[in-house]
Every structure is written in C-alpha cells, then in structure tokens.
Amino acid sequence: MSTLPLIGHLIDGKPATGGSRSQSVFNPATGRAEKTLQLADKATVEQAIASAQAAFPAWRNTPPLKRARVMGNLKVLLEQHADELCALITAEHGKVLSDALGELQRGIENVEYASYAPELLKGEHSKNVGPAIDSWSEFQPLGVAAGITPFNFPAMVPLWMWPMAVACGNTFVLKPSERDPSSTLRIAELALQAGLPPGVLNVVNGDKEAVDTLLTDPRVKAVSFVGSTPIAEYIYAEGCKHGKRVQALGGAKNHAVLMPDADIGNAVSALMGAAFGSCGERCMAIPLVVAVGDATADAVIAGLKTEMAKMQVGPGTAPGMDMGPLVTRAHFEKVRAYVDQGVKEGATLLVDGRALQVSGHEDGYFLGPCLFDNVKPGMVVYQEEIFGPVLGVVRVNTLQEAMDLIDAHEYGNGTCIFTRDGEAARYFTDNIQVGMVGVNVPLPVPVAYHSFGGWKRSLFGDLHAYGPDAVRFYTKRKTITQRWPSAGVREGAVFSFPSSK
Ligand code: NAD
Hints:
alpha/beta, 23 strands, seven-stranded mixed β-sheet, single chain, six-stranded mixed β-sheet
C-alpha cells in the first residue's frame, strides 16, 4: 500500500473518496511520485452530478447579486492564498513560480469578470411590440454544466469555466487534469469558504471513465472542454450525440511572422518568452517563426542564440529560473523524440537542449531549449504540436507566402506579426484565418472581458471560452411576449399570422 497522501474528490461541499483505481502524481523537477490520485468511477461521478442537480433549483433562484458576491469573496481569497496555490502548481506542473503567479492572476481576472454577471444577465426589453404587448428576452441557466480541463493551466483554465457558469445560476461538475489536480481542488475549497453552497461546484478527479460519464449522463446539459485536438474532437462529437451544448478547445501550432522592417531586438525578447515560457507547454506558445527574407532569418537566429545561451533552466521553485521541467516523463520523452525527428527530417538543429543535466535533479524531466533552422512545411516538426521548448525557423520570401502557410495549417489558435508597417499589419489581421492575432504582441491571449478561442481544428463549437461568449454558452435565451387586455375589451378571432402591419 502506498503511504503517499491521497487526493480524492469534492462532492456536495465535502471531501469524498470513490473509485478503485488510482495513479501517482509526480513532481516533474525530481521525477518522484508525491501523491496518489484516486480516479473516480462512474458511480462517484454520478454522485457529483446528483449533488449538482439537487443544488440547482435553489441556486438558480438565488438573486444574481448574491451569487456575484461569492465571486467577489473568492477573488480576495485567491489573492490571499496566491503563494500556497502557486507552490501547488509548480510542485505538480513544474512551471516557474512567477509563471504560476501569472496564470493565477489571469484566472482571478475571470473570477472578477464573473462578479459582473448581474449586469451581463440583464436581458433585453421592448415595450409595445404590438398593441399593449410587451416583449423581453432573458437568459436562464441551463442546469448542471461540466468542465474538463488540461494540465497546462491547472488554476486558470478551470477558472475560465465554472465561475461564470455558477454566477449565471448553473451548478457544476469539474474534472481537472489527472497530472496536476491539487491547485484546482484547493481553489474549489476556497470557493466553498467564499460562500458557494454545497453541491454548486463539485470536483471529481479521474480519467476517461469519469469524462465519459459526464458526456453521457442526461442530467449534464453543457460541457466545456480544453485539451488536445483528438480529445476535443471526441468530446464534441460524443457530447453533441447525447444532446449537450459543447465547446471543445483543442491544440495549436502558432506561427509568428517576422517582417524585414521589424524591431529585431524586441522581437527576439518577445519570442524567447513566447517559445520557452512554461517550457513551451502553452496553447498560445510560439513554436514557429516565419521569417520574411534570409537577412531577417539570420538576424533573428543570431539574437535567439545569444539569449538562449543565457537561459536558466532548473526547478521552478529555485530563484532566477526562466524555465522548469516538462510535466511528465512520458511527455519529456515525446518532446525529445520530436527533436530527433526534426534532425532526421533535415531541419538544422542550431541549439540542442537534449543533453541538459540539472545538477541535483538528474531524474527531473528537464529539456534545454532547442532551436531549428530550415524547418519546412512537409516536416512532422512543422505540422504537429510539440508542446515543448522547441522553436523552429521557417524561411519565406514574402508576407503572402507566410500567410498562405498559416492558412493551410490545420490549427488556427493564435498568431502574430512583428512589423513597423501598419499596412502590412492591417492586411494580416484582416485576412489571416486564425482566431487570436497579435501585432507586435507574441501571446495575444484575450483579457477576461473578451473571449478566447481559436479557429479551424483549434476549437469545436461556436462560442469561445470566458468573456461575453461564456455568458451565452452557460445560458439559454427565453423570449416572453405579454399582453394584458383592458378589462371588458373583447376582440374577435384573427386568423392571419400576427404582424405589426
Ligand atoms: P489532453 O487532451 O490529454 O487532456 C485534457 C483532458 O481530457 C484531461 O482532463 C484528461 O483527463 C482528459 N482526457 C484525456 N484523454 C481522454 C480520453 N481518451 N477520453 C476522455 N477524456 C480524456 O490534454 P493535456 O495534455 O492535458 O493538455 C495539453 C493540450 O491542451 C495541448 O494540446 C494544448 O494545446 C491544449 N490546450 C488548449 C487550450 C486552448 O484554449 N485551445 C488551452 C490549454 C491547452
């Protein structure tokens, strides 16, 4: 029997156990198993759904302002517990503490936006749409909603989902990533402390069995998913087949276009953070630079090589680190194999991080930053999402050539252009087939009061995550038309279709 601390679930406002299977949660900086995670079985997930279903009627009828106040309280608690939460993120994900704080802050901004729900739910009203007839639309909650989240933002991505869902009057069952669940679970405990009634937010840890229960149970009305594209596609098809509203955000391969007139020094700094921040494990990371002209490519490569040589790679808890380890041994091996593959395919490996050893952390999943030149569209390292610290330079001759490459790629999550030419930037933002676009901004992640989502195979569904789209996703519109005829006034039957003529 394992003596490691056991992570269970949070059901009906209480810690819960359930499920006969379990798996280890590792610290990626040491490679050691630190906790055991219980994997919920069908019955445990059904318990969580039942709790959410039971909590729905009272929560739906709680005044929106009272629901919003819980979000206000939670924001304060998250700020007070920031150090504790970041330590949990870094211990299981590996990212450096300052990066963990960045994701937590972005999550808190979503909680803050959810506290404006009463304003966002006000609906639409029209007086006198006909004689003595008034009409209005209101936005009613759906019931039980579910969220399934990835490992790379264990605090932020769940906060994209459930705060707005519950602020709109829904109840929720959340299934975090099994690789780094502790910060997600701790935030849910803080939500209870903030005043969320039992059952409004339930957390079940688990894998495919838990997910499939959420996808097929008729009590779950909507599913929000963030993760890799093959799973996103599955979640969307399966959820829709079972009559649910689904938004499924998938993977990415984001290109940065570097124009010959760009400020190369600033572009190099921006690319360093966008390619290697969080060890490249971000869906908005930049793994490809498309340089327009050989002189541009040569200049950016020179700058990148200088900066990469200065990077500090080590445990995310150590001061001054720029980059921590990859999340698991399996992912480390997968990313390393991509670097081998790039070499085999004929890309030029200019900086090779494969031999990196971090002293005292020999069993950690550390890979040094890697830089390829001469990456070509036919290569696997060009096509596939690597999700690691591997940056490739693609050489083209014109902006149009760069844009054609981006448009032909299966993913359309994020992109950016570095230029001083307003006309080129405007043409790029207007025409590129990508959902989130930056101009001299490498990670154009929308703020909490806009919405987040890619195009093409980076998102399945219509509505984007968080922001105004989340209010629409977690509510259904009802339109009421009302007439109060004056007492004693009788009207004859009308057989033509009612109109304002
Ligand atoms: P993943 O797809 O492996 O897992 C995501 C979730 O799906 C987890 O909760 C996991 O338990 C569950 N899952 C995994 N396999 C499943 C299966 N066969 N059936 C049912 N559920 C399953 O993704 P990940 O590795 O945790 O996260 C990285 C991926 O997420 C990358 O592809 C990244 O681009 C993507 N991502 C996308 C966005 C976005 O907004 N588009 C944001 C963050 C991450």
